[in-house]
Write a structure and sequence with these properties.
single chain, nine-stranded antiparallel beta sheet, 18 strands, alpha+beta, Pnp Oxidase, Chain A, 25% strand, four-stranded mixed beta sheet
């Protein structure tokens, strides 16, 4: 039986609301620190995810949704937002969630399906009409280098030869109405693709989509191998393709149910200071930002009454831990099992800010490994590192 795919982020919010896990905030809030402070308080209390419907200085209809995959204080529902995002019952345990990921590794990948239209393009602005300042982009932490327009969305990038399309989460900071900047690390997949375009002396086409199917941030944060496309993995996981639409100004595709899509080109030459930014380990470093590539925007599309998802990085537990730690544990567990090791389960302890990995072994580990406990631990460590 395949998991139940919630393809529309608004269906996901409705499902959370039915569980008492989402709440509308009709009172006006300020994008400058106040919205983030409320979200951080929700993390600390395990409170429902807040949907902000009135944001200071932002035109009516633009909304923001905080703590989209945080944890819950409700008994039996600690990981319900993770479970629902993966198409599992809200009461699913951490072990069941891990096994769902591991099981998907054995399924045949299914490429996305191109559809002619999508609600993500109900409103289209290109060229001089693009204005990112209309979006309810929050200022997250006192001391940040700017407002972070992307904390939960996915950047789409494709290699120049068209053979690999990568979906990855990367923080992106707003510069002005038509420019952004953010981390493009050369050892991460986004940086690898950008490097291929840069080697040709060309800017890299990109699309940044916000608020697509709730599963996507988990696969975007999963350490899949290079040249494996997250969209294909997601199709295999659910047993059906992801519906995507063509972008308006770049040769890329995005999920048809996305809330907001930003298109353009990531410069191969132009940089701008980015950061500092309060990060997932709960710290903020001092000093100025560092040069990062500039995203030059050519189009902005969005649904009617769009919703910007917002994650506020910091002390655990928040989405940097649930959406990166849990899939990472699953990927490691699959690799350890494939290596023939007597491993029962793996779990990245969320409260450790993804710094602790716990690996348990089967009762017959001694017979299966043929060595000592120290030898087995060293073998596991070699695979992990």
């Amino acid at each position: 039986m395949n998991p139940t795919n919630i393809s529309d982020p608004r269906e996901y919010i409705d499902a959370l609301r039915a569980l008492g896990e989402s709440i509308d905030i009709p009172k006006e809030v300020d994008w400058n620190l106040e919205m983030a402070a409320i979200i951080r308080r929700c993390y600390a209390l395990g409170a429902p995810a807040p949907l902000f419907t009135k944001i200071k200085g932002i035109e009516k209809g633009f909304r923001a949704f905080g703590a989209p995959a945080g944890t819950s204080r409700q008994p039996g529902l600690y990981l319900n937002r993770v479970a629902l995002s993966l198409g599992l019952p809200a009461q699913a345990s951490g072990k069941e969630i891990i096994e769902a990921f591991v099981g998907a590794k054995k399924k045949a990948p299914i490429p996305p399906r191109l559809v002619p239209t999508g609600i993500c393009q109900e409103n289209v602005f290109t060229g001089k009409d693009v204005d990112l300042m209309r979006l309810p982009t929050p200022f997250l932490h006192a001391g940040d280098g700017g407002r972070y327009i992307n904390s939960w969305g996915t950047v789409v990038a494709r290699t120049p030869d068209g053979k690999w399309t990568n979906w990855g989460i990367a923080r992106v900071m707003l510069l002005d109405g038509k420019r952004m900047t953010g981390i493009v690390h050369p050892l991460q997949h986004l940086g690898q693709v950008h490097g291929m375009w840069k080697a040709q002396g060309k800017p890299m086409p990109f699309a940044l989509f916000q608020g697509g199917p709730p599963f996507i941030p988990f696969v975007s944060g999963m350490p899949l191998p290079a040249w494996v496309s997250e969209a294909d993995y997601m199709g295999g996981y659910f047993g059906r393709p992801v519906d995507v639409v063509k972008c308006k100004t770049v040769d890329l595709e995005v999920p048809a149910t996305s809330e907001i899509v930003i298109e353009g080109y990531l410069s191969d030459k132009e940089t701008a200071p980015e950061g500092p930014m309060g990060e997932y380990a709960g710290y903020l470093w001092p000093g100025p930002g560092t040069p990062k590539p500039v995203y030059n925007v050519t189009a902005l599309t969005y649904r009617n009454d769009p919703i910007l998802p917002v994650v506020v990085a910091g002390e655990p537990v928040e989405e940097d831990h649930t959406a990166q730690g849990i899939p990472s544990a699953a990927e490691l567990l699959a690799e350890l099992r494939d290596a023939g090791l007597p491993v029962a389960m793996a779990w990245v302890t969320l409260e450790s800010a993804n710094h602790w990995l716990v690996v348990t072994v089967t009762k017959d580990w001694r017979a299966r490994s043929g060595g000592t406990a120290e030898q087995l631990c060293r073998t596991i460590a070699q695979h992990v590192f």
